[in-house]
Design brief:
- With 267 residues, the protein is mainly beta.
- The protein is built from 5 helices and 14 strands.
- Strand 1 and strand 2 form a beta hairpin.
- The longest helix is centred in the first third of the chain and has 12 residues.
Length: 267
């Protein structure tokens, strides 16, 4: 059984398409790392029901140089960056400006994420999920670049969501999906703080990344959201922000492995 479709066929997936088309969208969203360029930069706004205010996430990734940077800033007037992270010489550094502390992780591999693959198993007569570990992207960018929680837990039942439309957002063609979250288990609801019963997603047709999503309660009031303001690939992507030791001047090192800035080979 062939579950593959060309890019043009996928871009035209809308309305009451078959589950094989949904499967291809589902698979691409679980495997965004296979479709992303080595250089990516972007900015998105995110609000969750347990946040006090929305937050701004900005990031730059250059896998050819094994470097990345991301920052997390409350969306307030004149708000300062709350947290930054850097991938430097195979290690990972997180900086908390709200607590004046920093942590050096033993390796960038500490931030590995699972990508997934959908396969049709002839011997079982069904589609199964196969996990494979890939090198990480910054964890704070997962809401946009690799939101496996939304995909696996909220879209795994193809009967609960539909492909509503194909539209353009930020100059990129994307699928508009709508879903029913009312059947999600209490355990998953508690684990991911889900208070919503419906979801709308805008998914990039080429990469499978989430360009924006909205979650709604029973009164159709928005409870959570994320929307991308900028997303650049390849030569158009912004350069990765370089780390300076001045960033953590006077800050306390809380690395439980006893690692310091010297282990990053930057001082």
């Amino acid at each position: 059984m062939d579950y593959s479709h060309s890019e043009s066929e996928l871009a035209n997936c809308s309305g009451t398409f078959s589950n094989s088309c949904k499967n291809d969208i589902f698979s691409k969203m679980l495997n965004t790392v296979d479709y992303l360029d080595s250089k990516i930069s972007g900015k998105f706004i995110i609000y969750r029901s347990f946040f006090d205010v929305p937050h701004i996430v900005e990031f730059q990734i250059d896998e050819s140089k094994k470097t990345h940077y991301d920052s997390f800033t409350p969306e307030r007037t004149n708000a300062a960056i709350a947290q930054e992270s850097f991938r430097i010489n195979g290690r990972h550094l997180t900086v908390s400006h709200s607590t004046n502390t920093y942590t050096v992780w033993p390796s960038a591999d500490s931030y590995r994420r699972d990508a997934h693959e959908i396969r049709f198993m002839e011997e079982l007569g069904q589609i199964v999920l196969v996990s494979r570990t890939v090198e990480s992207i910054p964890s704070s960018t997962a809401e946009c670049l690799a939101n496996y929680n939304i995909v696996y837990y909220w879209l795994n039942d193809f009967d609960t969501w539909e492909i509503e439309d194909v539209t353009t957002y930020l100059g990129r063609e994307c699928w508009v999906l709508s879903g029913d979250l009312s059947q999600i288990s209490k355990i998953i609801r508690s684990m991911y703080h889900i208070v919503s019963i419906a979801i709308t997603l805008y998914v990039d047709c080429i990469t499978g990344v989430l360009l924006k999503y909205y979650l709604y309660d029973v009164n159709r009031k928005t409870t959570d959201y994320m929307y991308v303001e900028k997303l650049l690939f390849g030569d158009s992507a912004d350069s990765v922000t370089e780390f300076s030791a001045d960033t953590v001047a006077g800050y306390r090192n809380i690395s439980p492995w006893g690692l310091d800035l010297k282990s990053l080979e930057v001082v």
